[in-house]
């Protein structure tokens, strides 16, 4: 999933260098973890009801590059890595709500699990409903049960993966290149779902750092 987003190579030039400590991987990792923990703690103890909505809409106003530069290099199975992937998921959904909702809806029709229930999108799921789901999941990170938000994100990825794989089967003969593209997309989504699920387990055991 992260391969589908080509993040900018710079963020505020010298400002980013000073904030992140240059190219020192240890410093970058430390800042990523510290900012992730500080953000969650501050929001969860905030008395300002608008702070969550501002964070949900942050990348709409400022782009996703700031979030990417802070957290995208963190391990997928870490707190900053999980936050990065949820923000990225929301961004990708908003970039192609029509296509995403199509794959998700197909996935709900094919799924033999409770994933559509766990994800919690309104059915039938169109562009407006899939955008709403993305916002609900990100909002849940800050004001709900973080583990549940991760479970919902994982379920969304699995359902959408199932849908993309199903459409790949449909077009395999007529358009092999498109089938390959969709199969790759399905695999990435499935892998991201596994990362979200692993983070949810770590969060519940108090080990998600």
Automatic annotation (TrEMBL):
Tagged with keyword Transcription: yes
Q: Which UniProt keywords apply?
A: DNA-directed RNA polymerase, Transcription
Can you supply one Gene Ontology CC term for this chain's record?
Answer: DNA-directed RNA polymerase complex
What's the domain of life for this entry? Bacteria
Report the protein name in the record: DNA-directed RNA polymerase subunit beta
Organism of provenance: Marisediminicola antarctica
